[in-house]
Design goal:
The complex is a heterodimer of chains A (about 170) and B (about 110). Chain A is an all-alpha fold and about 170 residues long. Chain A has one domain: Butyryl-CoA Dehydrogenase, subunit A, domain 3. Chain A contains 7 helices and no strands. In chain A, helix 1 packs across helix 3 and helix 5 crosses helix 7. The longest helix of chain A has 29 residues. The relative contact order of chain A is 0.11. Chain B is an all-alpha fold and about 110 residues long. Helices cover about 65% and strands about 0% of the residues of chain B. Chain B is built from 3 helices and no strands. The longest helix of chain B has about 40 residues. The relative contact order of chain B is 0.13. The chains are: A mainly alpha (about 170), B mainly alpha (about 110). Chains A and B meet through helix 1, helix 2, helix 5 and helix 7 of A and helix 1 and helix 2 of B.
Chain lengths: ~170, ~110
């Protein structure tokens, strides 16, 4: 292990550790679980060939590892591994001033929908990368994202109308 | 350029969530990586150790069968038996490879 490997790891970790933590927390992981999974994901990433890939491709692979680790963790917790079946999990790290949590918009989405929206609009992955991370076909990502957008848009609108009526 | 309300809401939430994220401890993460690398190396050494033992045992058996009258036919198996029972490679028996690569690592969440 060379010094350059350390600096490569340090740069990559500094750039993406927090983003990965936010992603895991927003798709339903507990804060501490997310911290542990981030560490595990980076360990696995650094032991894989992806450690030598260019940054964008390596980042997509890192998110894939983290997603699978979270699925495994859920499996170990004896919960249903299906993303859509774990919608009843209360989201952690709710922020009152966040537009997603001023109503119940985010909580009303399924984890799969949350995952797709987060990867597309916050992490700005391409459709191909999202497909690889989520384990769905590349062609279906566009359709799924379009549906998710429509659902979240409706939820945010109804939250805004509800808030206006309350005022 | 029109502002996409969905993207804006998600990015605003991401900004707020950034403040709650734990500090990134590169040193602790690198230590975890090194530990995992050491464990992987031990796994490879264990595998090689067992491979060597099996190979040498087969060679000794072959020699004993093919040339029982020769000195090597008797001495080599005895040496091997002695080596196998001596515990020279005792760490190889630890069977570390049965544990996952990240088992036993110090968790960042446990540091707080």
């Amino acid at each position: 292990m060379t010094i350059s490997a350390y600096w490569r790891f340090a740069d990559f970790y500094s750039a993406h550790a927090r983003g990965l933590w936010r992603y895991l927390v927003r798709i339903g992981a507990d804060r501490t679980v997310a911290e542990d999974l981030v560490q595990d994901a980076f360990v696995r990433w650094s032991l894989s060939r992806a450690a030598r890939w260019e940054d964008e491709r390596a980042r997509a692979y890192l998110f894939t590892i983290a997603t699978r680790l979270l699925t495994d963790w859920w499996r170990r917790q004896r919960r249903d591994v299906s993303w859509d079946a774990i919608g009843e999990n209360a989201p952690t790290c709710e922020i009152e001033v966040s537009p997603l949590f001023q109503g119940r918009a985010w909580a009303a989405l399924s984890p799969r929908q949350q995952q797709l929206l987060w990867l597309a609009y916050v992490e700005e992955f391409t459709h191909d990368e999202i497909a690889a991370i989520c384990g769905v076909s590349s062609k279906s990502v566009r359709v799924l994202l379009s549906r998710c957008r429509a659902i979240l848009s409706g939820l945010l609108d109804s939250d805004a109308k509800g808030a206006a009526h309350a005022d | 350029m029109p502002i996409d309300p969905i993207a804006a809401a998600l990015r605003r939430d991401a900004e707020l969530l950034r403040e709650l994220a734990p500090p990134s401890d590169v040193a602790a993460a690198w230590q975890a990586v090194r530990t995992a690398q050491a464990r992987k190396l031990l796994w490879i050494i264990t595998l090689c150790g067992w491979g060597l033992r099996v190979l040498l045992t087969l060679v000794a058996l072959g020699l004993a069968l093919l040339a029982p009258d020769l000195l090597a036919g008797a001495v080599l198996p005895l040496v091997l038996v002695g080596w196998l029972s001596s515990g020279i490679c005792a760490p190889l028996f630890a069977m570390e490879h049965r544990r996952p690569l990240t088992a036993g690592l110090r968790r960042t969440s446990q540091l707080r």
